[in-house]
């Protein structure tokens, strides 16, 4: 599997995981879980804006209702799918220059930014699942292999 295909697999897994968690928070009084999921979307927008060299349209810790989270999530998923449809293997090694939230300048290869974005999202999805367990007694599993076994396109399953 190429690096681009692997990263796109991580992107698609995150999209699936976000949808599972969104469905769970719709029926739960779990504000901490909603906050963590909103942060996943905020971070996705921050990193995408850095890649695209534009101002972000969402705060890194946005305050969103469940319905706003669904709308923002659908938009983010579309934007990330579009971005991936335009990428090539060669582009993954290209440097991206940006400023962090404290204003410090950095330059990082695109592949590292993508990997960070997907790992960071999974970390906060885990925190959302813990919050759901505390609120409802049940966590939501969003493991990568669970996705590969049942949610990934048949040709991609291993």
What does it look like?
This protein has a two-stranded antiparallel ribbon. Helix 2 runs parallel beside helix 3 and helix 2 packs antiparallel against helix 4. A hairpin with a 5-residue loop joins strand 1 and strand 2 (105-109). Residues 153-158 have low confidence and may be disordered. It has a single domain, classed as Up-down Bundle (Four Helix Bundle (Hemerythrin (Met), subunit A)), CATH 1.20.120. It has helices at residues 3-26, 31-51, 66-86, 110-136, 144-150; strands spanning 95-99, 105-109. It is mainly alpha-helical. The protein has 5 helices and 2 strands; from the N terminus they run αααββαα. The termini are close together.
Question: What topology does this entry show?
Answer:
Elements: H1 3-26, H2 31-51, H3 66-86, E1 95-99, E2 105-109, H4 110-136, H5 144-150
Antiparallel strand pairs: 1-2
Helix pairs in contact: 1-2, 1-3, 1-4, 2-3, 2-4
Give average pLDDT, whole number: 93
Estimated radius of gyration: 16 Å
Strand-residue fraction? Answer: 5-15%
What summary fits the major beta sheet? 2 strands, antiparallel
From the helix content, strand content and strand pairing, which structural class follows? Answer: mainly alpha
The CATH topology turns out to be Four Helix Bundle (Hemerythrin (Met), subunit A)
Under the CATH scheme, which class?
Mainly Alpha
User: CATH homologous superfamily?
Assistant: dinb family like domain
Count all strands and give the number. 2
Poorly predicted sequence stretches spanning 5 or more consecutive residues: 153-158
> How many H/I helical runs?
5
Q: Give the overall silhouette.
A: globular
Overall structural domain count: 1
By oligomeric state, this entry counts as single chain
Secondary-structure arrangement, i.e. CATH architecture = Up-down Bundle
